[in-house]
Structure formats: structure tokens, C-alpha cells
Amino acid sequence: VNPKDNISKFEVLYKYDDLQNGANINSLTLKYDKALNKEWGVNVEAPIVYYQEFGLEDAGLGDIQARLRYGKSFGQFALLAGAELVVPTASKDTLGRGKWQANPVVGAVYAFSPTVFAFAGYKHFWSFAGDDDRVAVNESQPRLIMAYTDPQGWWLLGDVKYTKSWETPRPEVVDTEVEIGQMLGRSTGVWIRGGTSFLDTSREFGINLGIRQIF
User: How far apart are CA 55 and CA 1, in angstroms?
Assistant: First the structure.
């Protein structure tokens, strides 16, 4: 739950996004995180995506993402940095962005108490190669998370992201989501997340379901 936690885990993530004009996106993502040591970690995500709109249905592999992350704690503070590589493996144009991306991330976590924390971070999406016919990726994304983690094993968090695109005709999007989850034991957790988007976006609402196994 806490972005500063560097742990090895496997996750299965289901996501549904309802878009305007009857379009929708379903995806099932497999994600693996590996803690290399106390401060360094890596992860990889592989999504299977189904896109549907009036007169069009596409299904197949989406863009694969791989990340390297570093975190350092200083008492109640933790500083985070990372780098994300997006590989344009999508089998259809509707299932990915068609661009190689190198996306840096920086952020910080502050623990108000043993059960309450806040995360503030910034991520920049930047494409450096790929399909010349697809729109280049150049986006700024600040993000804020506030969370409560209960000693009984459940958690509640709010997540707000603002994305500014410097390339597309829909330049600004705000995503707001709420997540509630429960640990089923010492190493297995499940959660549900829901939310909506505002400003220049076709997304009306979305639902995420996840299960996590910690090693």
C-alpha cells in the first residue's frame, strides 16, 4: 500500500474503464515486483487488453512496462526515485501507444503516524522512438495519495493525478480514485478501487480489482 515499501510480490490486476459513446476497455495485468535489497527494487507488468466501441473490437497484448526503483527512509520521511521503460508490444493500435517510452519518477512519503501517510510525486512520460504515425508522448503528471492502514489489516486510500499532455488535443486530465483493501493473511491482500476523470477526457468511470501475494 505504501509506495516506500520495497517488497517482493506477485499481483493480478483487473481493470474496467467506461468511456464516452459506449466504448470501454477491459484489461488483465500480471505484475511481478522483486526487492533486490533494502533500497533497490524492480518490477514488470504485462497486460492483456480488450477494447470495444461501436463497430470495433480489439483484443491482445498491451504495452509491457518495466521499472527500476530506489527508496531511502529518513525517519518519518522517505525519498523515492525510479525509471520506467515502456515497450510498444501492443498487438493493435487501440491497445497501446505505439511508442518506446523512458519515464522518470520522483516522490516522497511522509508518515503522520504508524497508520497514516501521504505520498506526493511527479512522473514524466516521454517517448523516444516507435511508430512515426503515432502521436509522440510528452506528459507531466503530479500525483497525491493519502492513506490509512489499519492494524487489523485493512486500508483506505485516496489517489489524485493531474496529467498535462504537451502533444495531444486533449491536454489536461484529472483522475480521482478511492481504494479499499483487506489482508486475508500475513502475505495475501485483495482490494477494489473506483473513480472517475475530469476535464479533457473520454473516461467516465473505472473499476479496478486486485489480488497480491507477498513473498
Answer: 39
Backbone region of residue 132 per phi and psi (left: phi > 0; alpha: psi in -120 to 50; beta: other values): alpha
H-helix or E-strand containing 17?
strand 9-19
Position of cell 518519518?
A: 76
Q: For 188, what's the count of Cα atoms within 13 Å in the CB-facing half-sphere?
A: 3
Strand partners, 87: 64
In a 13 Å sphere around the CA of 12, the CA atoms on its Cβ side amount to 4
Residues 129-164 have pLDDT tens digits of 999 999 999 999 999 999 999 999 999 999 999 999
Can you say how many angstroms the Cα of residue 89 is from the centroid of all Cα atoms in its chain? Answer: 18
The SS3 of residue 73 is strand
Give the span between the Cα atoms of 189 and 179, in whole angstroms. 13
How many helices (H) and strands (E) the chain has is answered by 0, 13
41-70 burial code (b ≥16 CB/10 A, e <16)? bebebbbebbbbeeeeebebebbbbebebe
Going by the DSSP 8-state scheme, the letter that residue 38 receives in this structure is S
pTM exceeding 0.85: yes
Residue of 212, 201, 155 whose CA lies nearest to 178: 155
- Is residue 35 predicted with pLDDT exceeding 90? yes
The answer to whether the beta carbons of residues 103 and 81 sit under 8 Å apart is: no
